User: What shape does this take?
Amino acid sequence: MGHERRERGEQACVAESPRLFDVAAGAAAAPSPMYEIHEADAFEWLDETRENSIHAVVTDPPYGLVEYSEEELDKLRNGNGGGVWRIPPTLDGCKRSPLPRFTVLGEKEKQELSSFFQRLASKLLRVVVPGGHVMIATNPLVSHLVYVPFVAAGWEKRGEIIRIVQTLRGGDRPKNAHDEFPDVTVMPRSCWEPWGLFRKPCEGRVQDNLRKWKTGGLRRVSAREPFKDVIQAPPARPEERAIAPHPSLKPQRLLRQLVRASLPLGVGTILDPFMGSGSTVAAATACGLRSIGLEVDHEYFVMAERAIPVLAPLRV
Assistant: This one.
């Protein structure tokens, strides 16, 4: 959840009118109150959106401007390999999905990444209501470049949500020296994914904020069970990937738990500013929650148009 969108700076698309879809119909239909999606640059859209109008943000952003640049996307889509996208070999006859290689980021890219999140944190702070939460997917190698800018912008860090997931990132022996160093692994095999959890400061006490803005906390799983910060969620299932073949697709099993928790009273609007194939919007729709998705890449936007009404009814 680098996620499902790229940012083009000054050459970004201008935000267009909402496109609304009816989930039951599974196609473009009469306006629905459940969600709207915009083919738009996230920063431009945020600039044009009124203050205190979003109640939660759940997103998997692009990690830097590297893996979703035109050059790197062309390499990925054409199957050329190289660049930041690592095309893993097959394992036991299974073709594995490409992974962005954060270890290739230089100091310049890291600074650009930090600046990107400074800009994002500042713009989100204006449009999110007091007490609203941001849940943002990251990676252990670059999470500090996300968290520091958010705190500096005025967000309260409320912890992390840890997704337990067995991946094929890390765990490799030294490149071109496997036989020489058979008992060495360069990096640990990654078995978890951090999601930063931030809250815009409340107006007064949490109870007061809940009454006025309907935000300030997280929705419990049940009367007896609070929302927890560890979630077991394997990669997206084959049927989900067939519907939304995005390289950074997050599973509905994870996203539905996150979007539900993000609105403590079950009311308000969830924003995914880097929608990609629309998996967060689909998860919100499945939970009966209103959402808005933004995507600047035309190919992924078209994918989201098709995928959301098909992903939302899936059982998980």
